[in-house]
Write a structure and sequence with these properties.
- With 322 residues, this protein is an all-alpha fold.
- Among the domains are: 73 residues, no CATH class; 75 residues, no CATH class.
Length: 322
């Protein structure tokens, strides 16, 4: 026994012998055999990094600065099969091929991928369920065959769509009309980076028109414009019904995001008979030939007198003048 113990101790002191034992254990371990049988690589991201370095066509090092690459967090891809959690089995893809031939395909994401949008999104939704994603199924974006990777940059340390200053540019890739509206003189401060599209719209789905974050347009507006909520003793009907009757939320060439300047805006509802609903013309100005000429129409401002147009709580505020 003493001779055997001495021999074993001598062998263990040899580095090559210890390496052989470890290598043999890896090759014959059930986990290793399972990975080989299913087409997954044994070393995970280490295998990918041999080719996908910073100088390659598809560098991946930046993912290590994201939440997806936190191995200590069991919810992340790197707590499991690492890159292959999302991109699928890569053993065949990692094999060397003769020059001029292409690598075996893996799952790729984005507009140029040959993988269907449904399959791409399923891989994301397998982890990202609940909260804001509950409404994704049958939503406008899902119905438009939009991939998660069309908006989100998974390998980027800072996803542009999650930052106030860069999110609008991501949305503008599809919503070009809204982009032009935000360049008009009167807009919400989206270009200034003070608010984002997602403060009013829920991109992952909603049961409302235009994917609004609240059940109605007015409730969405009241999130910031609480002073317009009321209740008022004297309510102005269009205000209580829908803010967009008078305002264009994305931008306007008129002040206060109005769709038209008063009195033209007001005269869409108020019948053209008597003051102040006389149609605005040059003859209606003081000194004009129109017998109904009125100084109240100067500067085209019904709100010059009716300043509480959103509603009034004054006992004498039935005309929204105080």
């Amino acid at each position: 026994m003493n001779n055997q113990s001495s021999l074993l101790a001598a062998l263990l002191m040899l580095p090559g012998f210890v390496f052989s034992i470890v290598a043999f254990a890896e090759e014959t371990s059930p986990a290793s055999a399972s990975l080989k049988a299913s087409g997954y690589t044994e070393k995970g991201a280490d295998t990918c990094l041999k080719c996908h370095d910073e100088e390659s066509e598809f560098p991946v090092f930046s993912i290590f600065k994201t939440k997806h690459a936190q191995k200590a967090d069991k919810r992340t891809p790197f707590a499991g099969l690492q890159c292959e959690t999302c991109h699928g089995p890569g053993a065949e893809h990692a094999k060397k091929v003769p020059e001029g031939q292409k690598q075996a395909p893996i799952i790729k994401f984005g507009a140029n991928s040959k993988v269907s949008v449904d399959k791409q999104n399923k891989l994301c939704l397998d982890c990202h369920q609940g909260n804001a994603r509950n409404g994704w199924q049958a939503s406008t974006h899902q119905g438009g065959d939009l991939a998660c990777a069309s908006c989100h940059k998974i390998h980027a340390p800072r996803d542009p769509v999650l930052a106030k200053t860069t999110q609008p540019d991501v949305c503008y890739n599809c919503h070009k009309k809204e982009r032009s509206d935000f360049f008009k003189p009167s807009t919400h401060p989206v270009r200034a980076g003070l608010i984002t599209c997602s403060e009013c719209h829920s991109p992952h789905g909603s049961n409302t028109d235009a994917l609004l974050v609240k059940p109605t347009i007015n409730q969405t507006c009241y999130t910031c414009h609480a002073e317009k909520r009321g209740p008022f003793l004297w309510e102005h009907a269009p205000v209580a019904e829908d803010c967009t009757i008078c305002h264009n939320p994305h931008g306007s060439v008129h002040t206060s995001l109005l769709k038209k300047n008063p009195p033209l805006l007001c005269q869409q509802c108020h019948a053209p008979s008597g003051h102040p609903s006389v149609a605005y013309t040059g003859d209606s100005l003081p000194g004009g030939s129109d017998p109904a000429n009125s100084a109240f129409l100067l500067a085209r401002g019904c709100a010059n007198c009716h300043s509480q147009v959103h509603g009034s709580n004054h006992p004498s505020g039935s005309r929204w003048m105080r």
